[in-house]
Amino acid sequence: MKNLVVFVFLATVLLALNMAEAQSAKPISTKNTPTKPTPTKPTPTKPSTPTKPSTPTKPSTATKPTPSTKPTLPTKPTPSKPTSAKPVAANVAMAKSVSGEPVPAKTTKRQSLKTTKTKPTPTRKTTKRTSRPSTSPAA
């Protein structure tokens, strides 16, 4: 946030300086002839600095929220077919929940798969360890 504020401030200052230089190619010469340029330059420079940075910053912020993107997202989920499938799944899940038996059965299957994967791993390691020591004494 601080970096953003500093960046905006520096950008504002640079824009103000560029505008001042564009109006008069010699900003130092202003000191030499303060009678005519002084009243003209301070008036446009000061209002230009706060007005221009504030205006681009606010419209940029208004543009960045991307209101068009938000409507696009609701447009994509508009298909009611996938939505219909979800409520059906919810109804089925509720029916299974009422029974109570199918839900634990699925959990058991998952656990059995995990257990099956876990058991072969130690068995294989044990087998390798067993074969290694038997090979070492033989050598």
Automatic annotation (TrEMBL):
Instruction: Report the source organism.
Output: Anopheles arabiensis
Q: Which regions are flagged for Low complexity bias?
A: 26-35, 48-73, 114-124
In the UniProt record, the signal sequence range is: 1-22
Superkingdom: Eukaryota
Protein keywords: Signal
Bias category Pro residues: which stretches? 36-47
Specify the protein name.
Answer: Uncharacterized protein
Q: Identify the stretch(es) annotated as Disordered.
A: 23-139
Whether Signal counts among this entry's keywords is: yes
